[in-house]
Amino acid sequence: MSQNAFARAYHSDILYSFSRSPTAIISAIVALAIIAGALCAPLIAPHNPFDLATLDLLDANIPPAWSASGDPRFLLGTDDQGRDILSAILYGSRISLLVGFASVLFSLVIGVTLGLISGYVGGRVDSVIMRVADVQLSFPAILIALLIDGIARGLLPRDAQDSLSLYVLIFAIGISGWVQYARTVRGATMVERNKEYVQAARLIGMRPFTVLRRHILPNVLGPVLVIATIHLAVAIITEATLSFLGVGIPPTTPSLGTLIRIGNSYLFSGDWWISIFPGIALVLLALSVNLLGDWLRDALNPRLR
C-alpha cells in the first residue's frame, strides 16, 4: 500500500511540475538549507549567542574574517555585544521561522474555521463575520499587528513583557492575517454546500460539524495551502519589521529583525556587516518561500496544466 502511494506521488502532476521548474528547485534547496541550519543551530553554530558567559565586549564590532582586521573565530564578524554574526543568524532564523510557522498556523485555524462557518451557515452569521473581515482589510496588517502588540504590552506586567514577547508577537501577526483564509474558504464553501454529496449527507441526518469536517474541508484545502505558503514569507518579514521597530523580539534575543536594527545604528560608521548579513539571510528566506508559494499556486491551478 505504501509502495502504491509512493508510486502515485512519484508520478503526480505536482512532482512533475516541480521537476520541470528550476526556480522551484532552487527555492526549495535554499529554503531547506536555511531551515536545516536553523534547526541544527546548536550543533553547527560556532558560538552560542545566548550564553552570556562566552560573550566578551572586547570582541565587539570585529569585521568579517577575510578583512584585514578580521578574526578567524568570527567568519562574518561580530555585533556591538561581541556576538558572532553567523551564530546569531542561525539562532535568529529559528526565531523567525518559529514566529512565521506559528502565526501562519494560528491565522489558518481561525480563518478556515470562520470561513467554513460563514459559508455554510450564511445569513446574519455570514454578514457579521464578513463585516469584521472588511473592517480589518481597511487597515494594513502591520498596523494591526502594532496595535495588538501595543495593547498586549499595556495590559501585561512590565517584568513579564520580555518573557511573553514571543507569544504576543505570534498572536499579533496571526490575528492580522486570518481574513484572507476566511474569505477564500467562505467562497469555496458556498460552492461546495450546494453540491449533491453535501445534500446527501444532510438527508441522512449527518450533523453540520461532521459535514464540514469530512466533506467540505478536504475540498477547500488546496487554495488554503497556497495562501499559507505565501503568508509564511509575509509573516517572517512582519516579524523582522516589528523587531526592527523595537516592538517585537527584545534586543537580548538575536532575531533577524533585531540584528538588522542593531546594525542599522552602525551602518554609516563602517560596521556594515552587522545588518547586511542578517538582511541577506532574511531576503533569501522570504524570497525562497515566496517563490515556492508562486510555484505551488500555478501547480494547483488546473487551467495552467
UniProtKB/TrEMBL annotation:
Cellular localization per UniProt: Cell membrane
* Any one GO BP annotation for this protein: transmembrane transport
* InterPro entries (alphabetical): BP-dependent_transpt_permease, MetI-like, MetI-like_sf, OppC_N
Lineage of this protein's species?
A: Bacteria, Pseudomonadati, Pseudomonadota, Betaproteobacteria, Burkholderiales
Where are the membrane-spanning stretches?
24-45, 95-121, 133-152, 164-181, 216-237, 272-296
Q: What is its main location?
A: membrane
A single GO CC term for this protein reads: plasma membrane
- Please provide the record's keywords in A-Z order: Cell membrane, Membrane, Transmembrane, Transmembrane helix, Transport
Q: How does it sit in the membrane?
A: Multi-pass membrane protein
Cross-referenced PANTHER family: ABC TRANSPORTER PERMEASE PROTEIN (PTHR43386:SF26), OLIGOPEPTIDE TRANSPORT SYSTEM PERMEASE PROTEIN APPC (PTHR43386)
Name of the protein in question? Peptide/nickel transport system permease protein
**Family statement:** Belongs to the binding-protein-dependent transport system permease family.
Where does the ABC transmembrane type-1 domain lie?
Answer: 93-293
Pfam families this protein is in? BPD_transp_1, OppC_N
